[in-house]
């Protein structure tokens, strides 16, 4: 890890939810670990609410410290972390405030990173204002998701930002790409010869990718109601996971080799014909229910959500990839809020043996399957059949387990920490390139259009279940079921 790259990290939205829960805790962790951040590196928070640096540090102590102390707080490291932080009170509407920002950073060393932890509607005005005071040179800009609302609005933002910053200066965050297990997926696929020959249509019957959450929309009802699960989770996190699962081996791990391969997958997604949307896409919305015995209210009664909202909180999709490796293999994707469990996992179902002399279990789909659990508890589990002890030849399902926390007891890094270090050190591989983002928007757009124009409400599901029955029915049509329905 480089330690000599000095930097000035300018955080727009310095008192926002993301800064509080993710960005500042991640910077603190990198600082606490020692050796990851250059000694001279500075953090300049930008916000409207705090009056001055003391006021901002007070806010950080009150609001960020609780998130940091979850992992055990090192008071000395916390105190020295605060010393890295400067503050500029800035009203985005006032040009003269950007001149103050320029003055505040002009003598600070190293590369400048501008992190826009703000709503996407502010991305373009902030970039213009930065350029107007010459702060776009020798700088990197980090854009949080969601970047736009659809292909058109995302293009408008990318065009405008692209006039001020070159593509190599733009870091579009998808925090799933920074997760250790997602990195491990690359290691599993491209560091081992074992799986590669099997990783194709001849041997794989279907693939499932699930990101399920127990949480609801929390305090983000207003944002979420205008967004929905397709934009919030599918267009970015799920399609990025899909592209990593399905991509060809890159010739190197440099940023463009990996992104080129992901792009090829996104471009090969079979376009969804609007007449088929009912067959390949399920949208749901949670009603009142209970999670682990605790009652939870219906989505439509959450603060900030319209009472007659038709926004989806659940999506299940059947996706196909039109290339030689994957033609005909269904990829089932799903995500939802207020589901029965918090879990993100990839399930690769291999084809059964073509003929079984050992009885029917060997002919069962999924007898051989690889389950890659991304969270919680990162594990890889390979299911096989084995002979049950005793008389006769009876087969039973057994599994080989690889639990990463038992192998690597320390060194796990939070997604945001990894990604922020990558920005500071100029590593682009884990950030979404514009063409990838466009391809993903282009693919989801027919579904977005159909759902927004439809007068049919989303299918209801009770909070604490696995989503609408139609999601299971879609898989049943392909002779399969979601992993948790197996037993
Ligand atoms: C974010 C979405 O991108 O990802 C949230 O906006 C979601 O709605 C979150 O809760 C899930 O991330 P994770 O890391 O908790 O799985």
SSE layout:
Blueprint: E1 7-12, H1 17-33, E2 42-47, H2 53-68, H3 75-83, E3 85-89, H4 95-105, E4 111-116, H5 123-132, E5 139-143, H6 151-162, E6 170-172, H7 180-191, E7 204-212, H8 221-225, H9 228-246, H10 255-268, H11 277-280, E8 281-287, E9 289-291, E10 294-296, E11 314-319, E12 331-336, E13 343-350, E14 369-375, E15 379-387, E16 395-403, H12 404-407, H13 415-425, H14 434-453, E17 459-462, H15 469-476
Parallel strand pairs: 1-2, 1-4, 2-3, 4-5, 5-6, 7-12, 8-17
Antiparallel strand pairs: 7-13, 8-11, 9-10, 11-12, 13-14, 14-15, 15-16
Helix pairs in contact: 1-2, 1-13, 6-14, 9-10, 9-14, 10-14
Bound molecules: 6-O-phosphono-beta-D-glucopyranose.
6-O-phosphono-beta-D-glucopyranose is lined by residues 213, 232.
